[in-house]
Write a structure and sequence with these properties.
The complex is a heterodimer of chains A (182) and B (154).
Chain A lengths: L2 H12 L4 E3 L3 H9 L5 E3 L7 H11 L5 E6 H5 L3 H9 L4 E7 L2 E2 L5 E2 L7 H7 L3 E5 L2 H10 L7 E6 L14 H10 L2
Helix pairs in contact in A: 1-2, 1-7
Chain B lengths: L1 H6 L4 E4 L6 H9 L3 E3 L3 H13 L4 E6 H6 L1 H9 L6 E6 L11 H14 L2 E5 L4 H13 L4 E6 L5
Parallel strand pairs in B: 1-2, 1-3, 3-4, 4-6, 5-6
Helix pairs in contact in B: 3-5
Classes of the chains: A alpha/beta (182), B alpha/beta (154).
Chain lengths: 182, 154
């Protein structure tokens, strides 16, 4: 399963719940797959999607807030897992699309080939799930609807596929429409 | 200062502790309004999420953390126009402060100016006006910084 396929499946099943998506190809793929007012695309500030989502989750306890993160991204902000794990927001669902590389910058290797993010999530008070297939991902996304967060879904993907087109909305437009639709 | 900011509309205080403002932080902890993060950039991310949810947020940090955060401030806070208040402890203000603070302390005002964040240095006599100035900035959707000089040694 390549990133583009995994993002399309997740986005379709999440419907209109807010999504905070990490910078780079993740946001570009989400934009191309399903551009919605409830998507917050990050352009810069690599690593911070989980932190932005934590702020949104704490202030909107009745909505389920999804994070579309990458392995390179979360490795830059592992501390956020401890902050989220301490606060235990029930409505935060953290998807990590893990291709064991920095694909947006040329496919250089990341550390998740040797380090198990699933275990780190579990020891940070997350309920953790992992999959490497489309059917597995659909199953987990259905299952977690009845489970309280924080939840991490570690999605092992393979590199490849043409990256999505660049996001054409301005950052301020992305912010305003997301905020109005919360 | 904490109580005044809370009263005039800042509901959320997120950051990494700095001894220069330890009384400010303990007052916030007492009122259960403080969230402590692992790094300053993380605090800025959480503040952006709170701002997306239409609440006001202040991020506190030492200037060493401010130096860490410059890219996050330019590529998240300024790029998306999040009206966040930064409260920054100014280590290295005194010439005989600890050596690791010397360089950033010396260029602190220039750094703020270079990235285009308006700031005011808080003193015993102007702190109320500073808080109101910062709130006005927030209401005009502009980020800004309040600086607290480190005028004592541990």
């Amino acid at each position: 399963m390549i990133r583009k396929d995994a993002i399309k499946i997740a986005s379709d099943m999440i419907c209109d719940s807010p999504i905070i998506s990490a910078n780079g190809y993740i946001s570009r793929d989400l934009f191309e797959a399903d551009d919605k007012n409830t998507n917050f695309y990050m352009i810069g500030s690599m690593g911070l999607s989980s932190s932005i989502a934590l702020g949104v989750a704490l202030k909107n306890p009745r909505k389920r807030i999804y994070v579309f993160d990458g392995d390179g991204n979360i490795l830059m902000n592992l501390g956020s897992l401890t902050t989220i794990g301490k606060l235990k927001p029930k409505n935060l669902i953290h998807l990590v699309f893990d291709n064991q590389s920095h694909e947006s910058t040329g496919g250089q290797p990341s550390n998740t080939k040797n380090i198990d993010l699933y275990k780190i999530a579990k020891s940070s008070n997350y309920k953790a799930f992992k999959t490497n297939s489309k059917i597995g991902l659909e199953k987990i996304l259905r299952k977690i609807k009845k489970i309280n967060g924080p939840i991490m879904i570690l999605i092992k993907i393979t590199k490849g596929g043409k990256p999505g087109k660049r996001i054409t909305h301005s950052p301020v437009t992305i912010k305003k429409r997301f905020s109005q639709n919360l | 200062m904490f109580d005044l900011l809370l009263r005039i509309g800042i509901e959320n205080f997120i950051g990494v502790p700095d001894s220069t403002m330890k009384h400010f932080i303990s007052q916030g902890l007492k009122k259960k309004k403080i969230l402590i993060t692992t790094r300053e950039e993380e605090a800025i991310g959480v503040a952006a999420g709170i701002s997306l949810s239409k609440q006001n947020a202040l991020v506190f940090m030492q200037n060493a953390g401010f130096a860490n955060s410059i890219s996050t401030i330019t590529s998240l806070i300024q790029l998306y126009e999040f009206p966040i208040i930064f409260l920054i402890g100014w280590r290295g203000y005194l010439k005989d402060d600890a050596p690791e603070h010397y360089k950033i302390g010396r260029i602190q005002p220039k750094l703020l100016k270079a990235i285009g964040i308006d700031s005011k240095t808080v003193t015993d006599s102007n702190w109320k006006e500073c808080c109101k100035w910062a709130m006005k900035k927030v209401n005009n959707s502009t980020p800004c910084a309040l600086i607290i000089k480190r005028e004592f040694h541990d």
